[in-house]
Amino acid sequence: MNLKHSRQRDSILEFLATRKDHPTADTVYMNVRQSFPNISLGTVYRNLTLLADIGEISRIRLGDGVDHFDYDTSPHYHFICSECGGVFDLNMEVTDTLTKAAQENFEGKIEGHVTYFYGRCNNCNPKH
Amino acid sequence: MNLKHSRQRDSILEFLATRKDHPTADTVYMNVRQSFPNISLGTVYRNLTLLADIGEISRIRLGDGVDHFDYDTSPHYHFICSECGGVFDLNMEVTDTLTKAAQENFEGKIEGHVTYFYGRCNNCNPKH
DNA sequence: TTTAAAACAGTAACTGTTACTGTTATTAGT
DNA sequence: ACTAATAACAGTAACAGTTACTGTTTTAAA
């Protein structure tokens, strides 16, 4: 891979680094436009995909039809609120016992699994 | 909910019952057209959504950008092959230990989780 | 510097899905 | 059986998120 430096890409990565809420491409676009008013949504998508491909960030799919992006590439679980759509990290250990269990009765090679949790976040959960 | 009977819906459900490979809306469309040549893709989507809403079938999201549908609504895990996109059931127990563990350090209410596995299926995994 | 190519902005196209519109099929009440 | 109300239909347009194309600009190696 023969990458060239780009200020737009820097800016996208820099923005992601400031956020812990796993923004979507569109949110990235909105924000990076403050530094690069002419940046194209295509550029944002291209760079998010590239950064994810080289492992600088990770792309997260949570069943809401939109891709989220995370500067934190360490393995951890996510929670998505069914009410407000907010995404949160979970403070919880990641194990490979699930993958091992799955491999037991399965021919073929299981390489990993995707897990995310859903429900009501603290804000949306009715207090009582 | 005040449902009326429809032959198209029957046919969609009937087709799904014959398949264990979790077809997409488009696959359902292709097949049901053999009995109903004029059926509309919109009708297929509408009925799949309706059937899923009333719990007759389940809708499965596996991160490949397409919805899959399953006649088997009992809780079980799925595997998706990164190579051919094939979807398979896993013969493996479903527990709620994950949900409990996730709830530990999380304010708000965790209602459930989605888990699926990926890798190479038996056909796509290089033999040796 | 010059120059090859990576990256860009802008925009069109594509995919999966949902919504709209006027017509047909179903079913409950006579 | 007939009628009337409406669920469901076919066909098609619209929509959202994402990817691909085109001609121009930026980067960085020679």
Task: Note down, in words, how this protein is organized.
The structure is a homodimer. With about 130 residues, the first copy, chain A, is an alpha+beta fold. Chain A has helices at about 5-15, 25-30, 40-55, 95-105, and strands spanning about 60, 65-70, 80, 85-90, 110-120. In chain A, a hairpin with a 5-residue loop joins strand 3 and strand 4 (about 85-90). The interface between A and B is large, with 37 and 37 residues. Strand 5 of chain A pairs antiparallel with strand 5 of chain B. The structure holds a DNA duplex (30 and 30 nucleotides).
Brief overview, please?
The first copy, chain A, is 31% helix and 21% strand.
SSE arrangement:
Two copies of one chain form a homodimer.
Chain A: H1 7-17, H2 25-32, H3 41-53, E1 58-61, E2 67-70, E3 78-81, E4 87-89, H4 97-104, E5 109-120
Parallel strand pairs in A: 3-5
Antiparallel strand pairs in A: 1-2, 3-4
Helix pairs in contact in A: 1-2, 1-3, 2-3
The first copy, chain A, binds a DNA duplex (30 and 30 nucleotides) through residues 2-9, 24-26, 38-43, 45-47, 49, 65-67.
**Sheet/helix structural class of chain A:** alpha+beta
CATH topology of the largest domain in chain A: Arc Repressor Mutant, subunit A
Low-confidence stretches of chain A: none
Per CATH, which architecture of the largest domain in chain A? Orthogonal Bundle
Proportion of beta-strand residues of chain A: 15-25%
CA(first)-CA(last) distance of chain A: 55 Å
How much helicity do the residues of chain A have? 25-40%
What is the name of the CATH class of the largest domain in chain A? Mainly Alpha
How do the helices and strands follow one another from N- to C-terminus of chain A? Answer: HHHEEEEHE
Quaternary structure state of the chains depicted: homodimer
Shape of chain A: globular
Largest interface: A-B, 37 and 37 residues
Tally of DSSP helical segments of chain A: 4
Whole-number mean pLDDT of chain A: 95
Order the strands across the largest sheet of chain A as they lie in space.
4-3-5
The Rg value of chain A, from CA coordinates, equals 17 Å
CATH superfamily of the largest domain in chain A: Winged helix-like DNA-binding domain superfamily/Winged helix DNA-binding domain
- Most strands sheet of chain A: 3 strands, mixed
- As for the number of domains of chain A, it is 2
